[in-house]
Amino acid sequence: MIALEAIRAAQLRIRPYLHRTPTFTSRFLGSQTGSEVYLKAELFQKTGSFKPRGAINKLKQFSAEEKSRGIVTVSAGNHAQAVAFAAAMEGIPCVVVMPSTAPKNKLDATRGYGAKVILHDEMRTIFERTEEVRRENDSILLHPFDDPEVIAGQGTTGLEIYEDVPAADTVVVGIGGGALISGIASAIKQLNPKVRVIGVEPEGAPAMTRALQEGKPVRLEKIETIADGLAAPYAGEWTLKCVQTYVEEVVLVTDQQIRDAVLLLLERAKLLVEPAGAACAAALLAGKIRSPGKVVLVLSGGNLSLSLLKSWL
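and the corresponding structure tokens:
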């Protein structure tokens, strides 16, 4: 498991390089849901999502020999940008394998941070393609979610939530591969076991739900969701164990509910949140969170394609 000490060490390690993101209240969301709502605004993190927390924590611990070999990773967009950003900061060569369907704004940003991007057409086999690239270059894989140091870095979000809302009853987090909820839950549950942590997945990408049902990671045969940041083909061994240990429940939301939440957050909270970041708000608004009380919604990223947003308006 991820020790609280490891998360605190990660916080000290990454603090000079990242923002301490704000937490806002939302009276409107509270009035709609009968709860006291707080919004942890990770969309204001560098690169536009929480992802640099884990990437920097991992790369700051690389040896000189590891740095010289370079890294390869796989991502639909936010992890790609974060790793490219962190690698450039450390002077490490970086290759990112991305799905050919990745949003153009995320592709452009990843290349802009200096990474080489390789596109792959099939999401189900994208990790296999990444391993081929790793072997070809004798580089080091920086896994997007199934790595204890990445999870510890993402867990620093949980430390900030506890500092800002120490009396929280519920924390709601979107799940892709599961590193963010694993880190947040590991931090918060070790600080206050009474806090409920709830995960949210799209109906079209229920990797963690399937893993919990089967008791092991399960590769999805089909992935279909507008929330590309939650479209992992499977949940990891590390993340499954963390969720089994610390997370009370994982709920599912539809793409329509996610889309409605994106637009509502923009209109009423003035926050431009991408679908993956709005999934937790979608779950609350859809009544999927039972007895939320004082609830923190983790708005995990804001890298929404403006062309996609335009098509919804």
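(Above: one complete record from the training split.) The chain has two domains: 4-50+147-312, 52-141.
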